Structure formats: structure tokens, C-alpha cells
Amino acid sequence: MKTVTPYLANLTPLRGIAALLTVIFHVDLMLGLGGNLLLKFEDSWLINRMYLMVDFFFILSGFVMSHVYGKWFQDSVERSEFKRFTIARFARVYPLHFVSLLATVTIFGVSGWIGIPENLIMEANNNLYSFITNLFLLQAMNLHDWFSWTHAAWSISVEWWMYMLFPFLVKPFMNLKPVGRIAVVLACFGGYLVLTFLIIPNLPAPVALPFFKPDPLNNTVNAAVQYGFLRCLCGFVLGMMMYLGYRENWGKSWLANGFTLVLLSAGLFTCMHFALADVFSISFLPLILLSAAYGSPSTDRFLGTKLLQRLGDWSFSIYLVHQPLMFLFGNAFAYYQFSRNGTYGQPSKPDQFVGWLVCLAFIAVTLAVSALTYRWVEVPARNYINRQFGGRKTVYSVDPSATTA
Questions:
Q1: 147: Cβ–Cβ under 8 A, 6 or more apart, which residues?
Q2: If we measure between CA atoms, which residue out of 315, 314, 316, 334 comes closest to residue 107?
Q3: What is the DSSP secondary structure assignment for residue 377, as one 8-state letter?
Q4: How confident is the model at residue 25 (pLDDT cuts 50, 70, 90)?
Q5: DSSP three-state, residue 368
Q6: Which candidate, 100, 96, 88, 121, places its Cα nearest to that of 5?
Q7: In principle, which of 111, 121, 141, 377 could form an S-S bond with 373, CB 3.0–4.6 Å?
Q8: Helix, strand, or coil here: 36?
Q9: pTM here?
Q10: Cβ–Cβ < 8 Å for 62, 136
């Protein structure tokens, strides 16, 4: 039986940081009624561009899947290994996805029962059909034109199907010569350009939201329930190529130091700040990943702190728990307003200072709940499924292949 390769500890905190940035992005959308609250667009587009953390998750997944499972499929895809791999990935992502889906359905169901009006942006596609597609992780495979239920789970949907494709990519990709690797990397960025300039500007408005249309000048790769799989494919394969470079110490002499990691991060945030085309921001993500993976004494000390490691452990819970909590608090506030004023009017937009206070308080609650779901849902469910169906005798408190935020 093949052993599971221990994860690269420096990558764990990056997941947690990226998950928190995603939470800030969604809080800004919620409180700002579309953004432009925590940071004004005239000051910076940084928070508006934090959806790119999802692209980092995709790149990270391709890298870590190659590191952990690449040897399983380097010669061929055997049925027994594919089964073990599928069970391991199911045990990693599905239990918490299922719990967050049920939580979201319950929140919206109870809200409707007590008379809280439907929020069209949040609930436009919430129906039995979308519940079934969410249940089978199909909600982002071009079956809908808008988000449904736990919106953030769209990335879990496309990543699950990328997992199913991954074993069949290992042999041809892991044996590529340098020219072939360069061609694949260029193809990935070509995919991002197709999304940016051909697909997203021409997407029709959702049927239930005819007023919602992407800005053709936004230069974004932010596809989700439509063409999200292409976005995931580009990132995941790019991560696989980066793993080949890591395995051969590509660029280690200049990437393996904390100063380079800081410079690369500054480059990323500068591109996001000025709202440059997303393809420029994404070009920094694989290098940040490599720099952290190589590590250095200063990098290892910083990323090895207990707080950041724990944040990384909780990252998947942070990602899937924060939106049900957001729906819960939003609807509770709406009901409170109704009890005081007798009406469900549009909530007022807070000022920037109050917005940040609310954001920090929400992050604190999200972290507390995520610690609980990690301890009582993620770990026991993963261990049980792997023991019962995956043939693992070892019980993991931390999954070495846990990459999804």
C-alpha cells in the first residue's frame, strides 16, 4: 500500500490567509450592497479583486495533488488506486459541503416561513433543481446562470470534477519535457485570456437578474457557475506544472527567501490595487506558491507559527461556513428591523469605520464556528470515511492533502 506524503507545512497558512481574504471580499459585497465600502473604489480596487484567492486555491490544489498523489498514477490509472483517491477526496470535501448546504437550506427555509422577503441576489436560483445539483456537486458545471444556496461552494463543485480528471493527467503531464511544460503554461494563460476577453464579456444576464451584466472593461477571470470549470482547469494544471518546477528546484536560488516572497506578494496586491487585468495578478500566484514551498529560515519561522498553522487547518471550514453565517445574520437583522419598524425595507449602508468593525466581528465569529466544524465535522467525518471505505488504518488529525480553502 502506498503511503501518503506529508504536506508541505508552509503552504497550510497560505490557505488560511486566502480564506480570510475571501471572507473580507464577501463582507464588502454584503455590507456595501455590491462592494465599495471597506475600500472605496477611488482609493483602491484591492478588496474588489480578492475573488482571485479562489484562483490561488486552484493552483495550490494542482500543486499539492501532484505532490501527494502523483506517484499513485505516474505509470497508469489503476482502478484500486482511483477508488482510494476518490474516497480520500470525497472524505475531504463532501461532509462539510453537505452540512453547509443543509444549513443554508434551513436558514432560507425558516426565513421564508417567518415571512422574511426573498433576497433576489442571494436566492434567485434556490429551488429543488439547484438543491439536487448542489447535492451532486454539479452546480457550477454550466447548469445554472446564477449562484444557488451556499454560493461559495461553486468552487468545490468544479474542483471535485477536476479531481476526477487529475489521475488521467498525471502520466502525460509529469513526463513533459521543458518545451512541453512551457507550452502547457502558455495554454493555461491562454485559457485565462479567453475567459477575460471572449467568454465573460459575452455572457448573457441571468434570467432572474436581467439587470446584472458583467462590465466588459473589468478584465476579469471571475467566472463561476458558468465556465468555472475552465477557470479551475487553468489554475489546477498551472499548479501541476509548478510542482514539476518545485521537484527540480526551478528558481530556488532566488525564490527561496522571505524577501522574494514579500516582493511577489507586493506585486500581486499592486496589480489588484490598480485593477489590472486579472491575468497579470494570476502570474504572481504560482511564484508565491513556489517561494513558500521552498521556504527559508525567515519564511519558515513566520509561516510555522501556531496561529497561522491553525488558521490553515480551519481554512476549508472558513470558506464554507462564512456564507451560511452571513445569510443567518443578514436575515436576523432584517427580522429585527421588521420587529421595530413593521417593514422589511432595504438596510442602510454603514460608513466605512462601522463596516470594518462589523467585518472584524464577523471574522471572529467565523473563526470560532470554523474551529468547531473543523473539530466536530471535518476531522471525524474524514477519518470515518477513510477508515471504513478507503482502507486507511491511520487516523489523521490534519489531512496532508487538504488544499481546498
A1: 124, 125, 154, 224, 225
A2: 334
A3: I
A4: very high
A5: helix
A6: 88
A7: 377
A8: coil
A9: 0.92
A10: no
